[in-house]
Inverse folding.
């Protein structure tokens, strides 16, 4: 179920945009790194769960690192500049990945095997189900995190008004680094979960761009909205592929997005202004 | 000096003279000097630089001057190119001029179609909308190509305007050079016009601009239309140049390339566009020759050779990052600062701080 | 404990906002900065509380020190940790967060007794905040937001409280309540205060002395009584005497 992956992706976008007002175009690469890391680490003989955790943490760290080194100095610039910056980073990351891992396609380990489960009468690959469950779990955990955990609260505060948060003693740079960490984890989870059901290939990053759509549909603000948007887009994409063939994924998803924007641009509740100093 | 009619005329004449001088200089450079000086290889790169410039100008008009975030440049380029390809495919004897005009007009119409809704949104939504346009157009061109001619792509006839039929690199260099200079002139003309000033005001602060009487929708729409017409013509020219047109050329990478050029060069900067285009376009070639020089030392050369493509990409990304971090206002700000320092040495008062650094001004 | 000497702030677009500001606030004092709109009062607050550190603004001073350490161009959270709290003029609470979440953010991580005592005192002074603690801060009325903002700023027992236009937009009765509360807080916590005010009346009630800013320059200094009695100053700003 594509929906699961899109959910995670959308969340990754939203978290970063909400938290730090940056459109993180590197999310695609975070996805790829996650999957690649799992593929490599699992060759080392460690059990699956530790491998998974290490991969997630590593990508999270990369995310924080990207923020601290590259994004933070540009605080307060307009959105386009930071987006382009993220694109630049993305290019660097993908080049490194290509150099380090090479162009071969890989598969990820599937500890649960290739069974098919029957859900409400329809057969589904076990990992499709797992993806879904994981995504929903993530949604739940995230919501809880932002509501109950202090760090989550600080993130919300810093997202709304960084200056005020700073004046109340919060080190917003650390908080933002945390936001990027989170987004990295989410993105890599998305990458891993998707790649587990298919293969690891550099085209994984394309998914990330389409992940923008559900984030936008949900208004780029709420976890719930992003989730609903994700399933909607997943549906759209599947239908589109069936109708128009595989290459139309991007076009279909974005066309639908365009339609929605055209019909209800304000209804999406996005704070649409380009932020400038 | 109080602006009296006499002063104004003197001022305008002076400006006109500067413009004429610079463009003649540019033309001379492009049509005469450079082609005779440079090797064919460099001319080839130069040709690419030159045909990238109008596209960068177009993006500069929409984004650099008017501040509208648009990821649609590759899409409009594709539209122009495929119009040319389609027309010459269906009606093989169409004169080139007509094709170009058609490209411009259809580009303009497309600009209106895209622009009309686009002017209603800002920032993030605008970016995503134009991104959507990109993917949709790309898909449509793919379908069109596959339907008409298949994977191989469209074949275009010889470019022919009033008997000028560029075939060799050097001839294309001159052709694109002329067009590049024309487009830079267009940018200059708009930039210093009232429309251009309202664009700049919009870029600074849309709400404030509106309050000050700028007709927001009209100005933004004009920016889109002019920009898309220009870049569509560019696309058509490009199609003629490559001779074989395939949809894959217009991938998202191209969008990024143009954005990088505009940001590196400086938003709305005329010399910046030239410098930015040169830098971004020639980078892969520079890297290639660098790696050739490294071929001596074994271990490194082997690695570099195998990964040359990735190293290029990496450096490209790094360049973007470095530029944005250290020169967020682009090259122009550096050039301008150096220029104004120089000016300061020559005379006490400064000139119009908004004017770009025109070489001709030293003597004036 | 707060020493400002020769403060000069220049904004990139609008030019010089403050020029040559000198003021010293001793421990336990309450000093007012008065003046009309655009005089540079808020800019001074910003310079002191670190707001300007990330903008492309030029901030310069011969001395800008708190407790002997320079706070010139330091980031806000550093200044907050040093013991300066600010109640800004706008955007003073997190509107999307609940009231109790706002306080939670301001609370920091310490959970000692002093914090609890302060919280208790605030609960007593602003019972409405206790009542509405599960509501979104943005839904509170202007006066209640002000109370929340003050509560947030003093929760960690700062040494210096800087307040920008505390009385702005408040009905006289409400303003009264807040002034009384602020007085009590000041006594309880042994606060030093720097108040920016257009409303001379409020300033007089809380502060012992002050200075008048106009167009970025200091026009007069003295005790509140001296300033209030000076007729020429009444012409300088439209805040009026209360």
């Amino acid at each position: 179920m594509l929906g699961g992956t899109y959910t995670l992706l959308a969340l990754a976008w939203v978290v970063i945009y909400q938290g730090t007002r940056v459109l993180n175009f590197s999310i695609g690469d975070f996805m790829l790194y996650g999957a690649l890391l799992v593929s490599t680490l699992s060759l080392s003989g460690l059990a699956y769960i530790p491998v998974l955790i290490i991969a997630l943490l590593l990508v999270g760290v990369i995310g924080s690192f990207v923020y601290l080194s590259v994004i933070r100095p540009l605080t307060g610039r307009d959105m386009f500049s930071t987006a382009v910056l993220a694109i630049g980073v993305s290019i660097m990351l993908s080049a490194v990945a290509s150099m380090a891992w090479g162009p071969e396609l890989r598969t990820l380990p599937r500890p649960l095997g290739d069974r098919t489960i029957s859900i409400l009468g329809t057969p589904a690959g076990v990992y499709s189900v797992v993806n879904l469950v994981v995504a929903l779990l993530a949604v739940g955990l995230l919501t809880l995190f932002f509501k109950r955990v202090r760090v989550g609260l600080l993130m919300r505060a810093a997202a709304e008004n960084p200056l005020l948060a700073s004046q109340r003693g919060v080190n917003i740079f650390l908080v933002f680094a945390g936001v990027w960490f989170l987004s990295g984890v989410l993105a890599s989870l998305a990458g891993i979960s998707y790649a587990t059901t298919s293969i690891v290939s550099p085209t994984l990053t394309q998914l990330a761009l389409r992940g923008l759509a559900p984030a936008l549909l949900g208004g780029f603000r709420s976890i719930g909205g992003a989730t609903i948007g994700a399933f909607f887009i997943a549906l759209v994409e599947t239908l589109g592929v069936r109708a128009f063939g595989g290459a139309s994924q991007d076009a279909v998803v974005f066309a639908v997005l365009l339609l929605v924007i055209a019909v209800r641009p304000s209804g999406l509740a996005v704070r649409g202004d380009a932020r400038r100093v | 000096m109080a602006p009296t009619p006499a002063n104004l005329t003197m001022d305008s004449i002076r400006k006109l003279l500067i413009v004429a001088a610079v463009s003649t200089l540019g033309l001379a450079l492009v049509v005469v000097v450079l082609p005779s000086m440079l090797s064919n290889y460099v001319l080839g790169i130069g040709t690419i630089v030159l045909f990238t410039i109008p596209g960068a100008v177009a993006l500069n008009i929409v984004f650099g001057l008017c501040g509208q975030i648009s990821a649609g440049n590759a899409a409009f380029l594709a539209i122009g190119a495929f119009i040319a390809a389609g027309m010459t495919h269906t009606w093989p004897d169409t004169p080139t001029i007509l094709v170009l005009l058609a490209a411009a007009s259809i580009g303009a119409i497309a600009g209106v179609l895209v622009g009309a809704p686009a002017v209603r949104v800002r920032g993030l939504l605008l970016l995503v909308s134009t991104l959507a346009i990109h993917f949709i157009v790309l898909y449509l061109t793919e379908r069109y190509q596959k339907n008409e001619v298949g994977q191989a792509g469209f074949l275009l006839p010889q470019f022919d305007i009033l008997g000028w039929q560029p075939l060799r690199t050097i001839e294309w260099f001159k052709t694109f050079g002329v067009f590049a200079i024309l487009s830079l002139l267009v940018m200059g003309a708009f930039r210093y016009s009232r429309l251009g000033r309202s664009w700049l005001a919009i870029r600074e602060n849309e709400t404030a601009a509106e309050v000050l009487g700028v007709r927001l929708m009209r100005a933004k729409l004009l920016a889109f239309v002019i920009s898309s017409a220009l870049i569509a013509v560019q696309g058509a020219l490009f199609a003629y140049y490559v001779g074989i047109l395939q949809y894959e050329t217009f991938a998202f990478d191209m969008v990024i390339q143009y954005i990088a050029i505009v940001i590196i060069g400086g938003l709305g900067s005329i010399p910046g566009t030239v410098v930015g285009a040169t830098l971004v376009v020639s980078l892969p070639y520079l890297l290639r020759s660098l790696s050739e020089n490294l071929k001596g030392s074994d271990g490194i050369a082997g690695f570099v050779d195998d990964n040359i493509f990735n190293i290029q990409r990496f450096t490209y990304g790094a360049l973007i990052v470095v530029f944005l971090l250290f020169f967020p206002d682009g090259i122009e700000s550096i050039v301008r600062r150096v220029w104004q320092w120089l000016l300061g040495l020559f005379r006490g008062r400064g000139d119009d701080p908004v004017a770009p650094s025109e070489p001709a001004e030293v003597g004036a | 404990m707060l020493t400002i000497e020769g403060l000069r702030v220049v904004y990139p677009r609008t030019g010089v906002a403050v020029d040559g500001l000198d003021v010293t606030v001793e421990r336990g004092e309450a000093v007012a900065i008065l003046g009309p709109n655009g005089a540079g009062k808020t800019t001074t607050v910003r310079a002191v509380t670190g707001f300007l550190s990330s903008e492309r603004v030029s901030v310069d001073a011969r001395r800008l020190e708190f407790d002997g350490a320079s706070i010139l161009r330091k980031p806000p959270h550093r200044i907050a940790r040093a013991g300066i709290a600010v109640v800004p003029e706008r955007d003073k609470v997190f509107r999307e967060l609940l009231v109790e979440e706002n306080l939670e953010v301001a609370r920091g991580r310490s959970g000692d007794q002093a914090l609890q005592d302060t919280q208790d005192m605030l609960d007593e002074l602003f019972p409405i905040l206790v009542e509405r603690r599960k509501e979104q801060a943005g839904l509170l009325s202007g006066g209640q937001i002000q109370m929340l903002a003050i509560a947030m700023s003093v929760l960690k027992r700062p040494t210096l409280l800087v307040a920008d236009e505390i009385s702005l937009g408040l009905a006289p009765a409400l303003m009264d309540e807040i002034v009384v509360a602020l007085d009590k807080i000041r006594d309880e916590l042994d606060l030093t205060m720097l108040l920016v005010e257009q409303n001379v009346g409020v300033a007089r009630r809380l502060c012992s002395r002050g200075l008048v800013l106009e167009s970025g320059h200091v026009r007069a200094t003295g005790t509140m009584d001296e300033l209030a009695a000076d007729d020429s100053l009444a012409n300088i700003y439209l805040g009026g005497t209360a």
Summary: The longest strand of chain A covers residues 116-119. The radius of gyration of chain A is 18 Å. DSSP finds eleven helices and two strands in chain A. The mean pLDDT of chain A is 75.
